[in-house]
Amino acid sequence: MNDTFLKACRGEETDYTPIWIMRQAGRYLPEYQKVRGKVTFLELCKTPELCVEVTLQPVDILGVDAAILFSDILIPLEAMGTPLEFHEGRGPVFPEPIQNQADLDRLIIPDPDEHTGFVMETIRLLRKELQVPLIGFAGAPFTCATYLIEGGSSKVFWETKKMMYTNPELFHNMMEKITRTTTLYLLAQAKAGAQALQIFDSWAGVLAPEDFKTFALPYVQQIVSDLQETGLPIIYFANNGATLLEMAASTGADVLGLDWRINIGDAVRRVGKVALQGNLDPFALLLPKEKLKARIGRILEDAKGAHGHIFNLGHGIHQFTPPEQAKAAVEFVHELSQR
Amino acid sequence: MNDTFLKACRGEETDYTPIWIMRQAGRYLPEYQKVRGKVTFLELCKTPELCVEVTLQPVDILGVDAAILFSDILIPLEAMGTPLEFHEGRGPVFPEPIQNQADLDRLIIPDPDEHTGFVMETIRLLRKELQVPLIGFAGAPFTCATYLIEGGSSKVFWETKKMMYTNPELFHNMMEKITRTTTLYLLAQAKAGAQALQIFDSWAGVLAPEDFKTFALPYVQQIVSDLQETGLPIIYFANNGATLLEMAASTGADVLGLDWRINIGDAVRRVGKVALQGNLDPFALLLPKEKLKARIGRILEDAKGAHGHIFNLGHGIHQFTPPEQAKAAVEFVHELSQR
Fold first, then answer.
1. Residue A216 is part of which domain span?
2. Phi/psi at B193 (nearest 5 deg)?
3. Residue B89: is its pLDDT beyond 80?
4. Chain B nearest C-alpha distance from A283 (Å)
5. By the 8 A CB rule, do A173 and A104 touch?
6. ipTM greater than 0.95
7. Across the strands, what pairs with B275?
8. Catalytic residue among B65, B72, B201, B259
9. CB of B316 less than 8 A from some CB of A
């Protein structure tokens, strides 16, 4: 069992810097495309055997130091009782967005084993196969709320901010319901066998610092606090959150994810005893090998003072990335970080 | 003549904090919609009399302390010889994106008076009408390059970064050509009567700091340096550029624009003797009046140590914003900042 990733999460000494890649089980892999070609995205998410297959692919092909459950942050939202559709090339759609308290009241706080049992089954099956740690995950409440309010993805989050600014009570009510759902969902993943838990706040970066503090941060703090009983490392990734870093650290998460917009050395200086995960620009995987190696070397060097470093990209790997470049990146990280 | 804006740009004492609003001549104003309803967007940009009319509207309606030339950052790129189309609801399209050196060689460095005379004529006409300073502007070279390479707007800038990482020589050649075009374009605006010049780096925030330093910053530094002879205040706005702030200051610009993601007090502490412009979240204009006033008050308070502060939004005003909220914001800024 390779536990380098878990040690780094806890800030313990490791023989080398572990690496995994956000969206490592994804469209850039022909092996994934083959599985995905037979089913819809939602069917894939709800079929444990297929989830296991695609989760294992990058572990075998790239040699990463952790696996992440194949699923989607919107799965528990659908379980709350709102229809979810994925349209090819358009992304997720919630055809019944939440616009008022009555809409919100119709949503339930789902029992994770009853309503998302396929996720827990995937985790149980994966633990029998894996020789590296398994990361479970969920979306952060603010990010989840944007999908429910906008009815899908958004460019500017007009409806979300409109609700925040003109009906904060409704917004907070929604955040409480999503927060409780997320906590139960992650606790169930821990019980099923997840060995670390990542909270993805993909859209935190659209908030002004004072709004993040009021409308998003308290709910992440609540979840991290409620997950302490699991004893698992918690990773919080506030995407595009360079100005939110100190607040992200205040959640009590063991690891903070960084996107590529920040120098990781600056992040080390700004946070205290917390591990950092990141932060190569995903598109830098296109660099010629020698330049890629040099760039990875600079990140490893800059991260040296960190209380634990897990190498990763600053965002999900792009679908047009050649898999051999991702494989090379994994090898460079391992080679350059040998202690 | 109200010169409060120009004084603030230079870090001089003012009686109150001046304000203007990015995209203040825009779709949120029924008066603008009326003009725009009669012509296409490009026709509007190329008809000085209509540009004058819409440029003046927010000065009269909102009472802002500066006017900004109505135009588009893509105008000088079209003048370089590449076709430009605007499709309703889809944004700008360059149907012949730059993919290789031959494509680039076909572009010219246009004579701004000959190829964009309508812009200079607009400036001359506006100066006869205005009682507040007139801001001219252009896109920063990196931002302009993304449009030429992607063939329009982009979400992830795959093609741009692909060129940067796999063909840096071509990328730098393109940046040099755009930089020279931009310098000549802004010098012509100064000669026509612009009283301050803003450089919009709308997409700077997609770059890792080391890439910004290599691929974008030197060209902005070149432009700012070449504009010194005009004696006009230069404003550089690197959107989503919280981690690039010190480098932005190194351009030599007199004023740095800030988006809403950063606390302006933190920005004051990080930059030296440079004025700051910003930075209310545009959607915060939806706040009830009392809360809007309090929020504006906090920004004014946080900005107090700045070497000059020009109030603005952190991004362009959104098309669904009620104009009376924008008007209220202008009044609050003036009222709360009286010295």
1. 4-336
2. 130, 5
3. no
4. 7
5. yes
6. yes
7. B255
8. B72
9. no
